[in-house]
Amino acid sequence: MILTVFSFLLFTACAAFLTWWITRKDERASSEGFFLGGRSLTFPIIAGSLLLTNLSTEQMVGLNGSAYQNGLSVMAWEVVSVIALVLMAVFFLPRFLRAGITTVPQFLELRFDRRTQTLANSVFLAAYALLLIPIILYSGAKGLINIMDLKAMTGIESEYLLLQLTCFAIGIAGMLYARFGGLRTLAVLDTINGIGLLVGGFLIAWFALAYLGGEDGVSGGWETLKNQHPERLDSTGEQGTDVPFATLFTGVALLNLFYWCTNQQIIQRTFGASSLAEGQKGVLLTGALKLLGPVYLVMPGIIAFHLYLGQDVKPDDAYGMLVSEVLPDHLTGFFAAVMVGAILSSFNAALNSTSALFSIGLYKHMVNPSASDQQTVKTAKLFVTVIAIAAMLGAPLLSKTGSLFSYLQTMNAIYFIPIFSVVVMGMLNKRVPSASAFASMIVGLIILISTLILYPALAPLKEDPVTGASVAQSFADVTGFSNYHLMGITFALLIGIMMTASIIAPRATAWKIETRNPIDMSHWKGVPVASAILIALVLIIYISFHQ
Fold it and tell me: Which numeric CATH code is attached to 2-406+524-544?
């Protein structure tokens, strides 16, 4: 126990000190310095920050929990994302950087009008404040409680009270980082923790397979999984699982595209690139690292399924229990510290993006247009505090949901799909009028809120097959029609609305992106080769594990 706590504190202190030392002279008083790191980020920092912003505990805990339930097919959230990252590097990033924007809603204002920007800004803010940030805190607290065995360490018997206290501890630490550090501070901390997370993640997969294999070691563990649970090692999910194979071409593809190409929390890192080439290299390096994701984000969940088969283990508890069981004490503290770093990374990224959306998109845009840079940053920091406190209070309530990762993806779709459809059409069709973009976002929100929240809420509760608890049914449970196919149909409908409007009442003049960014906009020459290799590897992985 003492060794675990010592290694935890040592790694946490070292990461914090190294981050301070590297970024101590950074300028954070201006909007560009605070939100974009002074547009000085190079490709290793961008890749490390992108990876760790994504790889928080909703991934480590949630995706492994989903693998515990469904098997290897959930690797789609890692492997298919590589194609989205290629498109980001080739198509989206050059246009975003040329526009010189800080937020995605700013792009929508440049392309369409202020009301479209305001609607997108408000939707992002609501989604981050009510969904993303609380989920990051909740999943982080759940993972930390199990990995560090905080119940035994603290003597607190009430699971809900322990969850509340852990959420507050993580939330306060994250709030301090987000308030007093700018984007570059967060990006450097991300990179340091990212290295630790990758090392720790692979170690857990290794130790878990060795634990499973006994005297035969890692190879024996792998043979045990192949022989006893071959259906769990199929890359193509069957109907009724979380990610049926057909959905890779509809909702799953769209959610990945939005997440890596237009999600403010993620792509704000790329907006701070020192040049387009550095941004492209950072994005594609992230794609290469994502190909390794199934090893530490999916495999442990499958191993936990074998170890805890027949036991009353909740999916979102499986990963933390596995880590606690297979990892040596001196590494448990290290990995817990890395997990805290991952939590803080995603939490800080969401807070930083939320503060940018509020202060630049609403405060300076509508409340105080004459605000100075110092006033804007001060307002952003105050808003960070309010949102962080609200998230700390709301996060424990998520303990009443079913599968965390499935819940997250379903809720994300409500705003992912409408915003992504408008951004894509705004770039592809120069004649789409502003009114159709605004109307499409409204229509998309109405359809997805009605089908993914209201309709299932009115249906009778169902029994969770794992926990036996009564939980709400999804749209797929009620209708038998996959949520992801619904997302694909909704996206097609919104594209159709804007395409029709561009024919019937086109924009008077074709829209053109004006270069507003002082950085070097030359493309990296290695983009075509690197992109082709990444896509080929995606296909090889799917074919190799198809049964």
Answer: 1.20.1730.10
